[in-house]
């Protein structure tokens, strides 16, 4: 196992056909929604506090307090040794950034915050990309493209669809944004989405690109964390010596958006959406 599990299982670990995917009852999905609201509220608190002069360690403390005040437990803290309650990935950091007193936000920074919580043994997991003050048009477009691809993936969550229908929807949305924005984006391939429920990371692994019609069929009661990551440059990544922080290989900036989504008869249910 590696530290790369926060961004989803590595592709080499995926084996769609050989493993069972957890199916939740309606009551269990309700419990996941409660955990998802804790995550949503924690991210809202972090978003309000993410200003120039604030350290990522302070944001981590705020998130943990918000989670614990709700009677929940941070799912990241201690997970395979991870030392914090959020991942705070600044600028060229894509995912798994470790909050630090030394990492003080400055005007023009871009920060992706990934947060997870456990409530009554059920998990919620979500991520947002935030701006500290003003950023460039290219950085705004990067975040918009990433979020749009996440929403396209969510829209593909329907009973009877194949897993990679979500992947294809994400990639198709990215290419549409590229055309609209007049530039290319790097789709991070080594990390992706994952099943979620009674554990934070479960089968199946969800690539953020690929052909449709592959992988298991989506069934009512499944829950998947959909989390595209895009860069302003290349798709290649580098893991730093801390064993966690993943950065772009070319130093370009990155964005990350994520929601936990349930498969229902009525379509996708975004369990980590704000109330």
Automatic annotation (TrEMBL):
Free-text remark on how the cofactor is bound: Binds 2 divalent metal cations per subunit. Has a high-affinity and a low affinity metal-binding site. The true nature of the physiological cofactor is under debate. The enzyme is active with cobalt, zinc, manganese or divalent iron ions. Most likely, methionine aminopeptidases function as mononuclear Fe(2+)-metalloproteases under physiological conditions, and the catalytically relevant metal-binding site has been assigned to the histidine-containing high-affinity site.
Pfam families xref list: Peptidase_M24 (PF00557)
Record note on quaternary structure: Monomer.
Annotated ranges, domain Peptidase M24: 31-265
Official protein name in the record: Methionine aminopeptidase
Gene3D superfamilies listed in its UniProt record: Creatinase/methionine aminopeptidase superfamily
Keyword Metal-binding: yes
UniProt: a divalent metal cation 2 binding residues: 125, 194, 227, 258
Source organism per UniProt: Actinokineospora globicatena
Higher taxonomy: Bacteria, Bacillati, Actinomycetota, Actinomycetes, Pseudonocardiales
């Amino acid at each position: 196992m590696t530290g790369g599990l926060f961004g989803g299982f590595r592709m080499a670990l995926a084996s769609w056909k050989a493993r069972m995917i957890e199916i939740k009852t309606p009551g269990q999905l309700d419990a996941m929604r409660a955990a998802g609201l804790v995550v949503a509220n924690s991210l809202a608190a972090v978003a309000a506090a993410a200003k120039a002069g604030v350290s990522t360690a302070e944001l981590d403390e705020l998130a943990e307090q918000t989670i614990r005040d709700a009677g929940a437990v941070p799912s990241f803290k201690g997970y395979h040794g991870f030392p914090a309650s959020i991942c705070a990935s600044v600028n060229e950091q894509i995912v798994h950034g470790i909050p630090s007193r030394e990492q003080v936000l400055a005007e023009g920074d871009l920060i992706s915050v990934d947060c997870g919580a456990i409530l009554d043994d059920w998990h919620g997991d979500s991520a947002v990309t935030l701006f500290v003050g003003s950023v460039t048009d290219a950085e705004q477009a990067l975040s918009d493209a990433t979020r749009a691809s996440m929403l396209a993936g969510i829209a593909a969550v329907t009973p009877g669809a194949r897993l990679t229908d979500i992947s294809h929807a994400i990639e198709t949305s990215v290419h549409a944004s590229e055309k609209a924005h007049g530039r290319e984006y790097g789709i991070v391939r080594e990390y992706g989405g994952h099943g979620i429920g009674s554990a934070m990371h479960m089968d199946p692994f969800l690539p953020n690109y690929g052909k449709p019609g592959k992988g298991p069929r989506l069934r009512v009661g499944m829950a998947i964390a959909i989390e595209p990551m895009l860069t302003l440059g290349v798709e290649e990544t580098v893991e730093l010596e801390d064993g966690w922080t993943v950065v772009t290989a070319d130093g370009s900036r990155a964005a990350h958006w994520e929601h936990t989504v349930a498969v229902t008869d009525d379509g996708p249910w975004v369990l980590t959406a704000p109330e």
